[in-house]
Amino acid sequence: MKHALATDADKASKGFLVETGEAITAWAMGEITQTLYPGEPELAEDRVNYRFVNGFVDVGDLPCRLALWKHVAARTVALTADFPISALYLPGFNRRVEFSGFWHRPTLLARWLRTRIVPPVSGRYRLRLATCGGVHLWVDGALAAKFEPFRRNKESVTEIELWLEAGGSEIVVLAEELAERDALWYFELTVLDAVPLRIELPVDVSVETIEVLKALARDVRPSPMHVRDGELVLEFGTPASVDVEIRAQILPSVHMRGKPPLLDARAVLSAGERRVTLEGVWTLPDAYHALDLTLSVGETRVERQIAFARFRDPPRDMRHLPLAQRKAIALEYMAEHGELRAGRAVAALAHGLPVGATFREIVDNTLAAIDERRDCSDFVMVPLLWAAACYAAQIPGDIMAKIEHSILGYRYWVDEPGNDVMWFWSENHVLCFHVSQYLAGRLYPDHRFECSGRLGAAQADLACDRLMHWFDSVEVHGLAEWNSAAYYPIDFIGLLALEHLGQGAVRDRARTLLDRLFVMIGLHTLAGVPAGTMGRAYDKELRAGPLTELAPFATVGFGEGWLNDGVAALPMLAAGDYSPPVAAAEVVTPPAGEAITAHYVQGHDEAARLVLYKTAAVQLSSTMDGKPGGRGHQQHILDIRFAAHPLARAWVNHPGEDDPWGHQRPSYWAGNGSMPRAAQFQNSALLLYDLGVDARLPFTHGYVECQAFDEVVLENNWIMLRSGAGLAALTATRTIVPVDTGPCAGIEFRAEGTNSAWYVVVADAADAGNLQSFRNLLAQTRVELSDDGRRVSVRQPQGPSLVLDWLDGLSVDGQPHLFPNRSIDPMIQRIDAASF
Predict the structure, then answer these.
(1) Same domain, residue pair 459 and 516
(2) Which superkingdom heads the taxonomic lineage of this protein's source (predicted)?
(3) Is 68 left (phi over 0), alpha (psi -120 to 50) or beta?
(4) Strand partners of residue 125
(5) Amino acid 260: pLDDT
(6) Gap between the Cα atoms of 117 and 198, Å rounded
(7) Which has the least CB within 10 A, 74, 334, 342, 822?
(8) pTM of the predicted model as reported, rounded to 2 decimal places
(9) Helices (H), 40-196
(10) Distance between CA atoms of residues 452 and 414, nearest Å
(11) Phi-psi region of 317 (alpha: psi -120 to 50; beta: other; left: phi over 0)
């Protein structure tokens, strides 16, 4: 991967040299301006067909975007050349100039940037401009390019020509985007001519200062990734040559924006040092935290966001306690330590706490989200309805009056007028909106609902019909968001509410699906951490399994694991009468010497054929087949999880973006930029990649957080892992190179090349202190890729020979391997565990 910066000091002293095919990523930036931009309320086209997929959904154009296009067509943008500089954007970690993020309401975003381009001679120079959003570009004060596609989260590309003066031309850019919740917002300006351009930042800052800030921002990482003792150290790739001031902020979760930062710390990285300690981390709740860094030398600032996990609490062993007592412990914990969201209010009421200032603050937060129709407000509407239905007598009258007003004024579906950006179309949101409409209508059957104009009884009847369609889909196809530690808790919001407050078929079908979910969770939970292949995953679910909102469901349901501040749905499990089925608990921990295997399908048209191999020590889970070669989204294809350490986990993927700390879907670690052909047979799995000749990132890689393992050995192109009595090994048909610098040091193992295959095998260690017998197996195992890159074969001294073909799939000992179970209900078998 090439970066847009010549890194040696000689070139840096002359500016940043950008070669053909590289991007211009050195910019001085103004502040981001944000303007609420809703457009006019109207009905939306109901495109929900109850066939849920993982990836882009064409939902039509919302009122905000229609209003923007109308505005853009008529406007003229004037150059603002003298905007104050708030920070620098420097080369090193992203070829895009990117400001992607999440906004709960329709928001028009704008940012001014400027730089200086110095060509070798005066003339016209060709560049490729790619953007999510819209771009105006001025050269030496004259408008030279205007590109305003404004397609939601879809990149548009054009070619532009700029007249550049040999002495240098001043470039000013206005980058804009309309955020409709999750927003990709960036531009990428790539040099096309076979002539290098020199980029000079138009700021009165020394080259040395810029070099220091660039290097620090590029290479910063937390050490360790998971903070256990309350002290967070930032580690940099090279020592600072001057003192650098650091401001570190952690904002509340995306659902609690507008509240004060959870952390606002300052420190100084002294000249000559590579490490600095941030104070105050011990006050943070256990969670995976995004850390906003501002690195400053004098008035010159660079911004960078990284992340780390605060992980202090020990696991709980409540297996000896009955379910009712485990629920009571969870309720007490959430009532005292949960995030200030609606679920904590439910926990407090169920636990019998008096209504006080904290309860009122939670209700105010919740009603603000509902009244403003923020995206994800459906997630808090359901627990609010639970509280109103079950605990009205405990809630003061003035609070109940405000709750009633918000419930009656909400927009429950796209056939009701609105100009918000609430997401009505994904599997989890469809459920929560329908449940909200159903419960609200039942709670207020004789009241008229403001947005729809219907009486509550009509709202409930309509929602019931819609819920039947939702259940019809997931009962046939399973879930597009299979095993998702991010979205199973959201499914639980709706399903637990229906099981507790619904009636008839709605309640019965909810209970049946809850049972099915818990069986799948039990299968993929090892030592208190739900893991495995997932239909949708983010970095936080993969890097910090015990801290997900799904982990406490396993803790309460099966008696072992962690509680945390997540309260999206767990309070309803703890406050309700639902009990997970015995069958779920029976597959959590296999006996010594035994392995559990499972095969089943999930998602529309068998989007995922799931395979699981699990012993008491190690678990291998993957998704077979899929759609190889296509652009991925958030599918987590292969996962290895160990029992001895809660963070001992490994996987392989093709990165979906440049930045290791990015947030795209797919991201660097979560999902795949290009989907592999995948297969698993018992304790072995194969991934076959064809990234294409124009792959943006021409490599695949393995994630192994080395600090979480007892042993990590790279030997003869095998990554050998041991955690307790669990063993795993990964190899590739390309040379595996560990990354030892930058943000991925100690966790990333790369295999360069656009055609490659990975092979993974797991086993139990007969002697935990001796890897020799496992080494002997690996030394005699041959993994070979065909010349055309379309077939990988595995020959091993013990076990069958495996062949994975790009078109024909998996063969075992020369025979096609037919997936053994095409049902959404797992086929579970028990076999002898592989041991060495």
Answers:
(1) yes
(2) Bacteria
(3) alpha
(4) 162
(5) 87
(6) 6
(7) 74
(8) 0.95
(9) 63-74
(10) 10
(11) beta
Domain match, 413 and 488 both: yes
For 411-439, write each residue's pLDDT tens digit: 999 999 999 999 999 999 999 999 999 99
In terms of DSSP H, where are the helices of 372-426?
377-390, 397-409
Q: Are 653 and 697 part of one and the same domain?
A: yes
Decide: residue 104, CB within 10 A, 0-12 exposed, 13-18 middle, 19+ buried: buried
Domain tally, the chain: 4
* pLDDT, tens digit, 9 for 90 and up, residues 505-559: 999 999 999 999 999 999 999 999 999 999 999 999 999 999 999 999 999 999 9
The first and second tokens of residue 700, run together, are: 């695949």
> What's 220's domain CATH number?
2.60.40
pLDDT of residue 555: 98
DSSP string, 499-555: HHH--HHHHHHHHHHHHHHHHHHHHTEETTEE-S-BSS--HHHHH-GGGSSSHHHHH
Pairwise CA distance, residues 810 & 757, whole Å: 13
pLDDT band at 1 (very low <50, low <70, confident <90, very high): very low
Stretch 162-173: mean pLDDT: 97
Question: What pLDDT digit, counting tens, does each position of 745-787 carry?
Answer: 999 999 999 999 999 999 999 886 678 889 999 999 999 999 9
Residues 193 and 57 in one domain: yes
Domain identity same for 230 and 157: no
- Asked if 725 and 764 count as a contact pair (C-beta separation under 8 A), the reply is yes
Residue corresponding to tokens 């296009």: 69
215 lies in the same domain as 150: no
- Amino acid, single-letter form, for residue 520: M
- Phi/psi for 301 (5° steps) reads -130, 145
Q: How many residues does the chain have?
A: 836
- Does residue 544 contact residue 647 with C-beta atoms inside 8 Å? yes
Contacts of 139 (CB under 8 A, 6+ apart): 162, 163, 164, 169, 170, 171
Domain that holds residue 137: 9-200
Distance of CA 95 to the CA centre of its chain: 21
Taking the CA atoms of 810, 811, 816 and 822 in sequence, report the sign of the dihedral they define. negative
Q: Are 493 and 486 in contact (CB under 8 A)?
A: no
User: How far apart are the C-alpha atoms of 108 and 116, rounded to whole Å?
Assistant: 27
Residue 82 CB neighbours (<10 A)? 9
**Within a domain: residue 763?**
yes
Cβ atoms of 114 and 172 within 8 Å: the answer is yes
Q: Please report where in the chains the tokens 């530690």 appear, as a residue.
A: 485
